[in-house]
């Protein structure tokens, strides 16, 4: 859910989210807000001398050898290589005319005539015949000829890329990814076409693996810090409030501040007590008792059970409970609105933005003065790049709760991202001044410092960003995510790899269920060339994924790292490392 995840991260401005190819195949790190952006992505657009299009043509002149027009390919007074070249050139002419069968015949003749010691020429002839087979959509033949070309010349970019495209058509994604990874490294990530194919295959592989694995994964309760952070993002959430006087046994009503003792007959009240004790593993079962007994707190128990189902990543279990609460017209309106917020967030994780928007809008209709609705809908709008609408929602939240430091900080961050992506330096400065004001008025809001630090990092004000992260840590020493961001800052600011890794290791020590820490550690190990360790880190993050979409993303990282190990083994190719 949005409220429970990392702070909203900006887009790279390149059209690629942070989890795509540059992060995957070892291009230099450009770190901001914990993201790794596509290296020199924007430089590939319309750059003279850089190929961005399909590689569809054969190599060599499209015209026959001078003076040989209409003659047979074989000439008695020419060397075998010259005759092979003549056959190839004639094949190129047929190719250009769209006569692919005749072109294939000529390329086959060239392959037969070419002396075996002329390896470069021979590999070209195989690659040209593969290009003709490609036009006929004979994918196995394309793979076979490109393989011959690559055996002769292992760094033959055209042959590797053509084979990658054919392998994709044959649904051999693993080998396709290996070939296109090699191409990207050989081209120094300067060709948009190969990068797009790599991105496409990584997404498909990630989705395929996550679809099977997510259903069968172990359901793990997040860390107490994560759970408390999640609930702190709600102010109108009845189920997250401490036990009220009326919910306690008579003998405990005078013991304010002490943990309440409750009757065993109420599963929901027992679950609330476990909430206060941070004994989270017992909450779902106690809520189930309340629901099955149709007790007084059935609606509350359904909502609390659904919330913890969501926290452990069991959306299938959560949805029926949320549906029931939403449809209880006699239930407390704040319970129904809270259920709509959580279902809307769940839909967003499932990449169903229209259904998500409908739920948030319905929540705003039934509980117009619920600040949580506007706060969480504002986050949704940021994810949908609807910044102006997000700011409007944050304003409404602030109007209802002027002391909501979190909403004010997120509004300021939304304005900053809008100014930053729009290249408006004056508006950027206005947003930065806004952060100064927020951190001054709400000195105990860790989120305000964290978001300000992210903006400062974007602006390369690294020293001040470091100060903001230190203030976050002072306020929330158990927040693992802050240590990860601070570690990434050290890499960008001082290129201090050891300190960066130490801070991320500290995050894992604080919270061994922090998937963001494992993911980031894996990304850095890719950059260092430690691919086996990177794969291990990604696998740990996969086991902690909170949604199928997140798991797919992590599998993409893992697959890309594995593809690099294969490319290094087969071709001795390695991208730049830190």
Question: How would you characterize the overall build of this protein?
Answer:
TPR repeats lie at residues 84-117, 371-404, 446-479, 515-548. One of its GO terms (molecular function) is mitochondrion targeting sequence binding. Belongs to the Tom70 family. The chain crosses the membrane at residues 21-39. Residues 43-88, 242-262 are annotated as: Disordered. The protein is mostly helical. It has a domain at 412-512: Serine Threonine Protein Phosphatase 5, Tetratricopeptide repeat. Helices cover 64% and strands 1% of the residues. It has 26 helices and 2 strands. It has helices spanning 21-24, 80-96, 100-113, 119-135, 139-152, 157-169, 173-186, 192-216, 224-231, 267-276, 283-292, 298-311, 315-326, 333-349, 353-366, 371-383, 387-400, 405-421, 425-441, 446-458, 462-475, 480-494, 497-510, 515-528, 531-543, 548-571; strands spanning 31-32, 35-36. A two-stranded antiparallel ribbon has the order 1-2. A hairpin with a 2-residue loop joins strand 1 and strand 2. Helix 7 (173-186) runs antiparallel to helix 8 and helix 24 (515-528) packs antiparallel against helix 25 (531-543). The longest helix has 25 residues, at 192-216. It is elongated. The chain starts with 20 loop residues before the first helix and ends in a 7-residue tail after the last helix. Residues 1-53, 62-71 and 249-263 have low confidence and may be disordered.
Question: Summed up, what is this model?
Answer:
This is Mitochondrial import receptor subunit TOM70. The chain is an all-alpha fold and 578 residues long.
């Amino acid at each position: 859910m949005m409220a429970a995840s990392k702070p909203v991260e900006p887009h790279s401005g390149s059209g690629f989210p942070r989890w795509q190819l540059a992060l995957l195949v070892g291009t230099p790190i450009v770190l901001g807000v914990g993201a790794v952006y596509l290296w020199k992505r924007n430089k590939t657009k319309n750059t003279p001398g850089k190929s961005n299009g399909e590689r569809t043509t054969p190599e060599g002149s499209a015209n026959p050898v001078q003076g040989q027009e209409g003659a047979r390919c074989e000439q008695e007074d020419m060397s075998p290589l010259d005759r092979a070249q003549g056959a190839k050139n004639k094949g190129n002419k047929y190719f250009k005319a769209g006569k692919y069968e005749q072109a294939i015949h000529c390329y086959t003749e060239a392959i037969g005539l070419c002396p075996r010691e002329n390896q470069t020429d021979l590999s070209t002839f195989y690659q040209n015949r593969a290009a003709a087979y490609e036009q006929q959509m004979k994918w196995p033949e394309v793979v076979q000829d490109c393989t011959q070309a690559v055996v002769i010349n292992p760094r033959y970019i055209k042959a590797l890329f053509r084979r990658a495209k054919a392998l994709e058509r044959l649904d051999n994604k693993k080998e396709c990814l290996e070939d296109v990874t090699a191409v990207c490294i050989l081209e120094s990530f300067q060709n948009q076409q190969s990068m797009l194919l790599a991105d496409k295959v990584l997404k498909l592989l990630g989705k395929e693996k996550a679809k099977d694995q997510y259903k069968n994964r172990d359901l793990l309760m997040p860390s107490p810090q994560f759970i408390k952070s999640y609930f702190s993002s709600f102010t109108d959430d009845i189920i997250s409030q401490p036990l009220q006087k009326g919910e306690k046994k008579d003998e405990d009503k005078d013991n304010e501040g002490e943990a309440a003792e409750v009757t065993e007959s109420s599963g929901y009240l027992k679950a609330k007590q476990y909430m206060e004790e941070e004994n989270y593993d017992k909450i779902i079962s106690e809520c189930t008792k309340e629901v099955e007994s149709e007790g007084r707190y059935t609606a509350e128990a359904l909502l609390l059970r659904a919330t913890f189902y969501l926290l452990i990543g069991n959306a299938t279990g959560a949805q029926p409970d949320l549906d029931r609460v939403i449809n209880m017209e006699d239930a407390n309106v704040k319970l129904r609105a809270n259920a709509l917020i959580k279902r809307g967030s769940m839909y967003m994780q499932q990449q169903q933005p229209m259904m998500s928007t409908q739920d948030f809008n319905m929540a705003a209709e039934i509980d117009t003065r619920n600040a949580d609705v506007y706060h969480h809908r504002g986050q949704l709008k940021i994810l949908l790049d609807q910044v102006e609408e997000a700011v409007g929602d944050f304003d409404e939240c602030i109007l209802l709760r002027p002391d909501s430091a979190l909403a004010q900080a997120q509004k300021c961050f939304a304005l900053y991202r809008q100014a930053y992506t729009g290249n408006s330096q004056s508006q950027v400065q206005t947003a930065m001044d806004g952060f100064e004001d927020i951190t001054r008025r709400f000195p105990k809001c860790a989120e305000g410092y964290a978001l300000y630090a992210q903006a400062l990092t974007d602006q390369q004000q690294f020293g001040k960003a470091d100060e903001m992260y230190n203030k976050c840590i002072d306020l929330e020493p158990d927040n693992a995510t802050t240590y990860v961001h601070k570690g990434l800052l050290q890499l960008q600011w001082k290129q201090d790899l050891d300190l960066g890794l130490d801070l991320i290791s500290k995050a894992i020590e604080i919270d061994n269920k922090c998937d963001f820490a494992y993911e980031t550690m894996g990304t850095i190990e890719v950059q260092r060339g430690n691919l086996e360790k990177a794969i291990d880190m990604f696998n740990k993050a996969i086991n902690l994924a909170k949604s199928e979409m997140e798991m797919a993303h992590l599998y993409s990282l893992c697959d890309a790292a594995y593809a690099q190990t294969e490319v290094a083994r087969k071709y001795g190719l390695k991208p730049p490392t830190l």
